[in-house]
Amino acid sequence: MRTRTGSRRAWPAAALSLGLLAAGSPAVVAESTGGQDATATCGPRNQRHQDNLGNVFTLDLFCDNLGADVLGRSAFNAPVTGRLKLSPSWFVCWTEGEAPPGQTRVWYYTQGDEVVTQPGLKAWGVVPARVVQTPRHPYPGLPRCSWV
After folding, report:
1. Is residue 148 very low, low, confident or very high in pLDDT (cuts 50, 70, 90)?
2. What local confidence, expressed as pLDDT, does residue 40 receive?
3. Are 84 and 94 in contact (CB under 8 A)?
4. Residue ranges per domain, the chain?
5. Is 62 exposed, middle or buried (0-12, 13-18, 19+ CB in 10 A)?
6. Residue 88, preceding bond cis, omega within 30 degrees?
7. Cβ pair 61, 108 in contact under 8 A
């Protein structure tokens, strides 16, 4: 649940793109950060996170992941706000967005390890599900992002 000073707060999808729409933004760049093996890490934890808009999350999904650009909205042409460089990483909720044919439309909301553009966003944004190394998307028990 996302809260701000104790009250439930809805967050419209457009909030992610606050001034973020820019032509020619880079697409997702995925590169392995250590490969996949039988000892892959993935599971929920009770962990508190607060994004740049004041939304508070008390549960995250802590999983191995590929290195990837973190995008300002669930579309491959969205501006890059940050970059996931380390694995494992945490993800606080999921939403739906663009997907290549035959792939899932699930995207996960997270904070990148590195700010790329728009420092006020502090590298918060979404990555496509293919980046998150979990056998099922969306991950069971991880909440859907409230702005959808």
Report:
1. low
2. 60
3. no
4. 3-9+25-131
5. middle
6. yes
7. yes
